[in-house]
Design brief:
Layout: E1 2-12, E2 17-27, E3 31-35, H1 42-49, E4 57-61, E5 68-70, H2 83-88, H3 92-110, H4 114-133, H5 139-149, H6 166-180, E6 184-188, H7 196-208, E7 212-216, H8 220-226, E8 229-234, E9 237-242, H9 245-280, H10 286-298, E10 324-335, E11 337-348, E12 352-356, H11 363-371, E13 378-383, E14 389-392, H12 405-409, H13 419-428, H14 445-459, E15 463-467, H15 475-487, E16 491-495, H16 499-505, E17 508-513, E18 516-521, H17 524-550, H18 577-599, H19 607-637
Parallel strand pairs: 3-7, 3-8, 5-6, 6-7, 12-16, 12-17, 14-15, 15-16
Antiparallel strand pairs: 1-2, 1-4, 8-9, 10-11, 10-13, 17-18
Helix pairs in contact: 3-4, 5-6, 9-10, 13-14, 18-19
């Protein structure tokens, strides 16, 4: 079912339009990720979709009565409202139905007239039908599920909402919107102010729900888990890609490569044709020349693909340290209540240690304690040989807001850097032109982050300590930073809530958990796999313990031996292995053809054809997985 049709939207605030012919559709059940560089107009588009702004031209069409809910970034709360009051506001229509049911029931009990009682009884039956259809009898459970999933404790339900922090209030707005369950959800950076636990809860909630949503997020892991379609907004236009963020990132590169080759081939043809026309316009081949000129005028020009390119960030080669750069023994720190204790680790040269944990667990405090900015309560920290540390703090205090970018980036230990060298450096971090002469305090959050990273590079240290370096960066700058840190030949210690960033950069993970810390070898994916294995082993052990306690040990079934193959029950009907291999080869060839069509921009000029190709591609991939499984079974049992 079509929920939203956006056609040729134009919105302009100055000389260049922010949105210039934006066109796409949203169908029921779609989970769209909206991505694009900072300043591309994503929030402007959201405001138009929500009816909070009007386009200069074009239109947004939607069915009558469509309920659109947009996540607010801030609002004014009444001082007499509590946390639970604000959350329940999302379910106000259901609470009103419950109140009506109670009111009608009371009137039925008090009614003396049979006609009036019958009328009230009919109304009561209708209200009860609505309550059952809307599952309104378990709404308090739904409120608990959402609030606790987003990190609130039940003991705080009756606290005045104005006593919560700004970040917590934004989480309340998110809870209220999720409980309202509109027909179309517009979520602009919903993971802001959420720690990893709450973010994982939200992505599971959205992924498992039937909600239709459009989502703006810099959290690529979140986009991968939640979305099934990606819209890229760039230079005022939208390009539509099937699949989640990772599929979009891959498919965009493939499309760009195909389009670039087509463009280069056409440019070569145009150049040769123009050369022929120029040489033969008045000669013996003038008629051929005029004919080719007409053909050239009719040719449909292929646009050169407009790539979004991240800044070419890099960090200079590091001076060699000893085998270890940081030795921590029995470290503890707290402010009244301990944040961490008995922390012991040794950071080796070349390692990239990512620190992960819930908000308020002491991650930033740990970095400052390791750097000596805060005294340790217990334990000690030793630095290795030749260690030179550069620190990126999430408040960006390293770049003075009163100085220009050029002056703020220059490190105190490198007075010989010329303004030209500094401009070359800032350009590598995405700051070019007149912006380098602006005061740091006048820059956007993303620009200030890039300035602080440029200064980190200028220091030329061999150990980089970073506290939330991904804040405010767009997706392309994030990818550039990941590549730069992965290529850095020194040592990196960083705090981040960005799981995609942790996965691509970290070689070790230090995880803060309630009352303890743990050190894992590997990146974020390997950490998650380790946790799942440990949880499964714990469940298996609990089952064995429960069985022993009851005196009924679980039956241990022998594994089938090689001569027991025929006794195994088949999942698929009998087919020859050769026949399966032939069908797999044919299907793989067809999938490759479909992938080429999806990479061709011409495919998307016909919306119906694009959907058909996408559906056949997805069905083909599903069928291919089944055929591989069938082939494995046939190879073993035939």
């Amino acid at each position: 079912m079509l929920l939203l049709s956006v056609s040729q939207i134009v919105r302009q605030f100055d000389a260049a339009p922010v949105l210039n012919g934006v066109t796409f559709e949203v169908n029921s059940g779609d989970k769209l990720g909206l991505v694009g560089p900072n300043g591309a107009g994503k929030t402007t588009l959201f405001r138009i979709l929500a009816g909070l702004d009007e386009p200069d031209s074009g239109q947004v069409q939607q069915p009558a009565g469509l309920r659109v809910g947009m996540l607010e970034q801030s609002t004014e709360f009444s001082a007499d409202r509590t946390l639970i009051d604000e959350a329940r506001a999302g379910l106000a229509p259901l609470y009103a139905l419950q109140d009506e049911a109670l009111d009608v029931a009371a009137k039925i009990a008090a009614a003396d007239d049979d006609t009036q009682r019958d009328r009230l009884q009919r109304r009561y039956d209708v209200v009860q039908l609505h309550l059952q259809r809307l599952q309104a009898y378990n709404i308090e459970h739904r409120v608990d599920e959402v609030l606790q999933g987003l990190g609130f404790d039940s003991k705080d339900y009756h606290r005045p909402i104005t006593t919560f922090s700004g970040g917590q209030q934004n989480r309340v707005l998110l809870a209220r919107l999720l409980l309202a369950d509109p027909d179309l959800l517009l979520l602009d950076e919903p993971t802001n102010h959420l720690d990893v636990g709450a973010t994982e809860w939200l992505e599971n909630y959205l992924a498992q729900s039937s909600a239709t949503l459009v989502l703006i997020s810099h959290d690529r892991w979140f986009l991968d888990r939640v979305t099934n379609r990606t819209l890229e907004l760039n230079r005022g236009r939208v390009n539509d890609y099937p699949g989640n963020f990772s599929a979009y990132w891959r498919l965009k590169a493939e499309r760009a490569e195909v389009q670039m080759k087509a463009w280069e081939k056409q440019q070569e043809f145009i150049a040769k044709t123009e050369e022929f026309i120029r040489k033969n316009f008045y000669g013996q081949k003038s008629s051929q020349s005029h004919d080719r000129e007409k053909k050239l005028e009719r040719i449909e020009r292929i646009e050169r693909p407009q790539q979004i390119v991240g800044p070419a960030m890099n960090f200079p080669s590091a001076r060699r340290t000893g085998d270890w750069v940081l030795d921590v023994t029995g470290l503890g720190k707290g402010f009244g209540t301990p944040l961490f204790s008995d922390l012991t680790l040794r950071l080796l040269r070349g390692a990239r240690l990512g620190i992960l944990g819930p908000n308020g667990c002491g991650k930033s405090t740990l970095l400052k304690t390791l750097l000596g900015e805060l005294p340790a309560d217990t334990g000690k920290v030793r630095l290795g040989t030749n260690v030179e540390i550069a620190y990126f703090d999430q408040q960006l205090a390293s770049v003075d807001p009163e100085l220009s970018v050029v002056e703020a980036v220059r490190p105190p230990n490198n007075a010989q850097m010329t303004p030209g060298q500094i401009r070359d450096l800032t350009a590598k971090f995405g700051l070019r032109g007149e912006i380098v002469h602006q005061q740091v305090g006048n820059l956007s959050g993303g620009e200030r982050t890039k300035a602080a990273l440029a200064r980190l590079s200028a220091v030329a240290a061999n150990v980089l300590v970073l506290d939330e370096p991904t804040n405010h960066l767009d997706l392309w700058a994030l990818a550039s930073l990941e590549e730069a840190l992965s290529a850095f030949d020194g040592t990196v210690l960083f705090v981040s809530h960005d799981r995609y960033f942790l996965d691509r950069v970290a070689t070790e993970i230090l995880v803060f958990e309630p009352g303890r810390w743990r050190l894992y070898d590997g990146n974020y994916t390997q950490y998650v796999d380790s946790m799942r294995r440990a949880e499964q082993e714990a469940r298996d052990q609990a089952s064995r313990d429960a069985a022993r306690a009851k005196g009924t040990a679980p039956e241990v079934k022998p594994q089938p031996k090689s001569d027991d193959r025929a006794k195994r029950k088949r999942k698929f009907p009998y087919r020859k292995v050769a026949d399966l291999e032939q069908e797999i080869a044919q299907l793989e060839e067809r999938i490759a053809e479909l992938q080429a069509e999806l990479s061709n921009p011409d495919t998307y000029r016909d919306g119906k054809k694009a959907r058909e190709v996408k559906e056949e591609f997805e069905a083909g991939q599903k069928r291919l997985a089944e055929l591989y499984e069938h082939w494995e079974e046939a190879s073993e049992l035939n």
